[in-house]
Every structure is written in C-alpha cells, then in structure tokens.
Design brief:
Structural Genomics Hypothetical 15.5 Kd Protein In mrcA-pckA Intergenic Region, Chain A, globular, alpha+beta, 6-stranded antiparallel β-sheet, 11 strands, single chain
Length: about 240
C-alpha cells in the first residue's frame, strides 16, 4: 500500500511543506513578525501531534488559559461526548480518581499558559480516560508577538490520502468499526458491497473518515473548526 504523506499549508503564504519542513518554515515567518512589530506581549508557537500523521501548529497568547486550549483541541479534533481531559508536563505522574472534578486533573485549566510554557517544553494531553486519545504538545519557540485572537491556527495536516481498502483507487469516505484489523475503509461505491457482508454496518458501525487522530473512536464524527480540512482527501482535478 502507498505510504501516506503528512503535509501542511502555511497560513501566511499558503505553501505546502512536509510535517518537519512546516515547523522550520513557520519559524521564519514568526521571526520576521517579531522583528517588524515591537511589543512586550508574548506568544508561543506550539506543535501538537496525534499519532504519526496528524499535527497542528498553533500560535497561542501567553494570556490564554489551558481551558481555552482544551476547548480549541476538543473543537478541532476531539469532542464527542463531553469526556474529561488533562494536561501534564511530560515525565510527571498523575494521581486521580473518578470522583475528582475535571479542573483538578493535571494542570489546573484556569492557569494561563504563560505561567507554564517555555521553549522546548513537552506536555502530554489526554481526552477521554476510557477510549483515550493522547496528544503530545511541544513548545517550539516563544516570541514577542501580540496575538489578539489568543489562539491562531498556523498549519494543520492536510486530509490524508487514505484510499479505499477494497478497490485501492478512490478516496475512502467511511470506515467500519466492526472490522478492526485491516480493510475497514471504503469509498462510496465499495461501502455498498461491504454493507451486504456486514450486518451491523448500516445500523451502527459506519463512521465518516475525518482528519483527526480520534477518527473511529467512541462517537467522534468530526470537528467544528477548520471544516475545509476536516473531511476526506480529494483527488486533484
């Protein structure tokens, strides 16, 4: 099967780069913005990864709270049933039980990121302590840049070139939860054939392909931010 590439577009110039290349490229823009605009207000360039292929690059103001970052991550990648979540500095241990309030788990959500973040810091984020989606957050750099939006999307991996596991030609549009090991993603045409073989497909096991590391987990069926990149890969015309 063809190896899937993970690439992202720069929000400043709309050029496309590899997962590694986009980090360096964004830094060149941010350095120029910092040089051209004098301010004492600080923002952080953070990279968030889920698995090997999914990534977000975000510019976040020092005044933003972890609660605001949590809300953003839920709405672009994760939210399905209002599960609990937590931020932890990598290497620290979390002690918790299921009677704790959500804001008591990990770093307090009301904390401003400027009180915690520093260059090269790595944090671990979890959404849903049952069917958990784990993310890694790296503080790539910090800049004297004012970010009035508080959280700005700099780049996101483009929809992955996931082809139908049956025909291998068309973009996969749906997956089957009952087929866990392999061959569980289908194009619009091939899903009809699969429905004849899988009794539960039409009733409950069909889910959309979405551009998120939570794809196919729990009731997740897509985000609410950056909808243009939330769907399936499209062949170039």
């Amino acid at each position: 099967m063809k190896k899937i590439k993970s690439e992202g577009k720069c929000c400043y110039c709309d050029k496309t780069y590899s997962s590694g290349g986009i980090t360096r490229h964004l830094s060149s823009h941010l350095n120029k913005i910092e040089t051209d605009n004098s301010t004492k207000k600080k923002s952080y360039h953070i990279k968030i990864t889920g698995g090997k292929l999914y990534f977000l690059h975000i510019l976040i103001s020092e005044k933003a709270t972890f609660d605001e970052l949590d809300f953003y991550l839920r709405n672009i990648w994760l939210e399905c049933c209002g599960h609990l979540s937590s931020f932890e500095i990598k290497g620290t241990k979390r002690s918790m039980d299921y009677y704790m309030e959500a804001e008591e788990i990990g770093i307090k959500k009301a904390t401003k990121v400027g009180k915690t973040f520093h260059k090269d810091m790595i944090l671990e984020y979890e959404y849903d302590f049952g069917s958990t989606t784990e993310l890694t957050i790296k503080v790539v750099n910090e800049y004297f840049i004012e970010n009035k939006e508080k959280i700005q999307l700099l780049s996101r991996n483009e929809p992955l070139e996931i082809l139908c596991h049956t025909c291998g030609k068309e973009a996969a549009e749906v997956l089957c939860l009952l087929w866990h090991e392999s061959g569980n993603m289908f194009c619009e045409s091939c899903k009809e054939t699969h429905a004849e073989e899988c009794g539960g497909f039409a009733d409950y096991s069909e889910m959309n392909i979405v551009n998120s590391p939570r794809m196919g987990v729990c009731a997740y069926n897509g985000g609410y931010i950056d909808l243009e990149r939330d769907g399936i890969w499209q062949k170039a015309e």
